[in-house]
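Quick one, T. Sequence first:
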Amino acid sequence: MPSPEEEFVKVVIDVSDPDMGVGGERVWAVALGDDVYEIRNSPWYARNVNWGDWVRAIAPAEDQWPVFESVVKRSGHRTIHIIFLDGGLQRKAEILRELNELGASYENNDSKMYAVDCSPETDAASVIRYLEKVESENLLEFQVNLYE
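Structure tokens:
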């Protein structure tokens, strides 16, 4: 739970993947001072940051959101992006429940797209193995963030 002193802002992250159909993403973050922010949600598209990472971001102007420049400190979290295929929608609740049982949490973007967070205490390899099994059944597709 954020403390009353925490200032939430959106940090803009460039997403240089034309296949995703987006050019950037805004994530919630808490200002830590000196242009450093702690990411406070799992990114939907960005593959270079995770929940809890500290990032340097500079606002181009006073009335604009800060723009991501670099990671200052990694949190140890790992983000996995999931897109449920039509054949997997009927088993979505079961699959998400299993992810929770493996220690992961998730945020829903729409009925098909989820950002799964594996905290440092979660065995991300087990989560990935489970998702590989489900993917082999043509129920979903997934991508693991590049960094943890």
